[in-house]
Amino acid sequence: MTWLRKVLLIKAVLTLVFWVLPLLFLPAGLFPDLGIPTWTPAANVFLRLLGGAYLAIALVEIWGFIDSVHRRSAALLGLVSSSVTSIVLCRDIFYGELWNWGLFGWALMLLWLLLYTLFAIALLVTGLPTLLGRAETSAPAPTSPSDVRPPLPPY
Fold it and tell me: Residue 89 sits in which domain range?
């Protein structure tokens, strides 16, 4: 298994467990217990939509993990989503946008800033050959006509 596949899988699983499930299914009344301020009922729809967007991103990353044909798209999507998430969290944390968040909520966002920054770096390092179209080439041609074995799968 390539490092790119490992990074895609780890990122997708962590996103599903710690972003998608809570954003889609956590009752809105529990967000204050996590140090995240209460939103109005009308604003809660944006939390659920964010969960749906992260679900789509995680599914593309899983699809790229499984299918080598789509790995380039998954690496690009993972890189862009991790980079943008890191930039938004950095701005919100260090420019005081989370002033009304509790300590646990603030620490949680700081942890996600660090993780998504690491994911962006890891996807850039491990996925650069794939993004440039130089990775996972087809198997070399058989050396002799009697060697009729099929090529190995790309994983």
Answer: 3-131
